Amino acid sequence: MGQPVIQLQNFTKIYGMGIRAVAGAKDINITVHKGQCVGFVGPNGAGKSTTIRAIMGLLSPTSGTLNVMGASTFDELAKVRQHIGYLPSEVNLYGNLTGKQVLYYAADLKKVDRAAIYPLAERLHLDLSKKVNSYSLGNRKKVALINVLLNDPELIILDEPTSGLDPVMQQIFFALLREAHTRGATIFLSSHNLQEIERFCDTVTVIKDAMIVADGPLKSIIGENRKEVVLEFEAEPRELTLAGIANFKTQGNKVKFDYEGDINVLVTHLANHKFKDIRIHNWTLEQVIRHYYEI
Prior knowledge:
By secondary structure, the chain is α/β, with parallel strands linked by helices. It has 10 helices and 13 strands.
């Protein structure tokens, strides 16, 4: 595993004071290693944006420590930001400038050849000649994405990057992101689209109520032995008694339940029952996250 690129240890951020104090993050421990692609998920208000802003040096911790690419103080973070591509959840651009002017300005700040803009704009089907205030949300997001990728950053931090993009543009965006990942970029991706996380990320961190509730490889979080089972019986279904069965629900002559354990044991158990149809699926990340949300 590569060296740590992001490290938060007991990171806590409290907004306000006294009885009005609200925790934006509580005892957050996250380690992201070089070359990883980490999905950061949680409901609204869980602490995702607070954590990301702290990683970017836009918020200081109330307590705990953070280290990003070897930087641990505000001044140090300002220096390493040139190696970070950051896309916030809300994109604010200079509305009276054209897309080309905004990106020329970004390229000059990053000391990147302006010619790097055009291949990215072409792939994202972005008309650079129009003013930003005439762009749709999706086109403004494209400008921001090009800015993120312009200088081949070592670390890419994305907060809801595909909101506003149509499905075709989402595919193109993730193709660009995969290319960056293949070149060695570390990616920290926050998204409500759990299918995106499941398809793209190798590691998942789940935050709820400002605290981390799960963290690890995607396969481990989902659980290779977790299944969703749907049975259709020939007659009225019977209750199934087997260790590992949970969330048993009946509808007519159909039953649906979750199963965690050896699938061969389940199949052997079901052989004692007469049913017309069976469907067995691996759990999705969405089911796992819903489980954590309901805890």
